[in-house]
Specification:
It is a single chain. This protein is an alpha+beta fold. The strands form six sheets. The protein has a four-stranded antiparallel beta sheet. Strands 12-18-15-16 form a four-stranded antiparallel beta sheet. It has a three-stranded mixed beta sheet with strand order 4-3-7, with no helix packed on it. α9 crosses α11. It is globular, with a radius of gyration of 29 Å. The protein starts with a helix and ends with a helix. The relative contact order is 0.09.
């Protein structure tokens, strides 16, 4: 990402500045309020957010009357007390300062864009965040002599255009990868509920089979073999609530390209930028980045090594002879569906292959995996699989965000108890 931006701004270099050469602390009227007496939500009287130390809600956790307050907007706030001393935020809405915090802004009054301010906050945080503590608070007199590294143009002026382009590129990356969105929509909730119903049905079916005698199990297996391969997840279309049909697919049905890699001895490998995949699960099988002239396999493909370990590859790569590549040139399958494929392959092949019985691509062609199918045809239900994996991804991101928030709350509790 940074390389793409750098390519557009080849004359930009990074230079160190003293913070006080670029920023100034802004004055404000002192407010005689106590946080315990102030509301956490706006009221008819208390309409203006008030800044205190901390990082929750960017330090804006109380509301005060606007009358008599110094109102700021489009400036940088600094937490000057507590466990998060030195934490900074770019504030785009009107607010005032209450206690244990202050406001800084660029000395240059040209007022660059919001994107530039976000870049500046990142650079400031890199310089001072975690360099201060409860006993060494990040007041202005302490931080103003610290150095900050920023890009400048050929004339030595701050490269605001570069900063803005960098943040836009970062924003585009977050949007493209979906990492800016972790709220489930209605369709994703419905799909998740279908799969949860499936899991519950499978559990009941497995429990029921475990309670049957060996003879009953044998008869049941024979009966199931005579039925259609497309079944509801609990093999009971009359009682299923999951509304998902499943069937088995051979790998050579799903992939029109199944290719085994070629051996490249370690002694012959030249250092470069191409990921080289070999057998194993460490680092998803990437053993080295090479510069050799080898066949490159396409992005949006899956590799399966001789032990049956499968990984999705969203990038081009080279490959040794102990790994096979699987992709489809005729059918467009998105990343989420390919991740579903990968999970199903790993589930099907787990524990089957080892040094005594290695999996090669010639043998893998006839292997089968179970996937959801469309009701009206035998075609895999690509949309259902894609929505499901996207929903799982959102749940994981939400879990990380919730964990982070709990850690912050725990830190605040410890600090407040002191």
């Amino acid at each position: 990402m940074e390389k793409r931006v750098r390519a557009k701004y080849s004359n930009v270099i990074e230079t160190d500045f003293v913070i006080s050469d670029l920023f100034i602390k802004l004055k404000h009227k002192r407010l005689n309020y106590k946080t315990k007496d102030l509301p956490k939500q706006p009221t008819d009287l208390n309409t203006l957010p008030a800044l205190t130390a901390g990082i929750l809600n960017q330090g804006l956790n109380n509301y005060v009357p606007e009358a008599g307050a110094t109102v700021f907007k489009n400036v940088i706030s600094v937490s000057a007390n507590g466990a998060n001393t030195g934490a900074m935020f770019y504030q785009t809405h009107p607010f005032t300062v209450l206690q244990d915090a202050y406001v800084i802004d660029l000395i240059d009054e040209s007022k660059p864009s919001d994107m530039v301010y976000l870049y500046l906050v990142g650079a400031l945080q890199k310089s001072i965040r975690f360099n201060f503590s409860w006993t060494n608070k990040a007041g202005w007199e302490r931080i103003k002599g610290e150095k900050i590294t920023l890009p400048v143009d050929k004339n030595g002026l701050l490269a605001f255009d570069y900063m803005e382009a960098y943040i836009k590129e970062l924003e585009a990356y977050l949007i493209a990868t979906g990492l800016n969105n972790y709220v489930l929509n209605d369709e994703e909730k419905r799909v998740l509920n279908k799969f949860r119903a499936h899991n519950a049905e499978q559990s009941r079916a497995e429990q029921s089979r475990a309670e049957q005698s060996r003879a009953e199990q044998s008869r049941a297996e024979q009966s199931r073999a005579e039925q259609s391969r497309a079944v509801r997840l609990n093999n009971d279309s009359n009682n299923s609530n999951s509304d998902i049909f499943w069937t088995e697919y051979r790998l050579d049905y799903l992939f029109d390209n199944i290719v085994q890699g070629k051996r490249l001895r370690k002694d012959d490998q030249v250092k470069g930028n191409l990921p080289f995949v070999m057998s194993g699960t460490t680092n998803t099988g990437i053993s080295k980045f090479i510069g050799n002239d080898v066949r490159q396999f396409p992005a949006n493909s899956i590799t399966i090594d001789i032990f049956g370990s499968a990984f999705y590859r969203p990038y081009k790569y080279g490959m040794g002879d102990d790994t096979g590549a699987y992709w489809n040139e005729k059918v467009s399958v998105d990343k989420m569906t390919m991740l579903f494929y990968t999970a199903s392959i790993n589930k099907s092949l787990y524990g089957i292959y080892d040094y005594g019985r290695k999996l090669r691509s010639t043998r893998a062609k006839s292997l089968v995996i179970q996937l959801p199918k469309k009701i009206e045809s035998r075609e895999p239900d690509y949309r259902l699989m894609s929505i499901y994996i996207r929903a799982i991804e959102k749940l994981v991101i939400r879990g990380v965000v919730n964990w982070k928030d709990k850690q912050i709350e725990a830190t605040r509790d410890v600090v407040n108890s002191d």
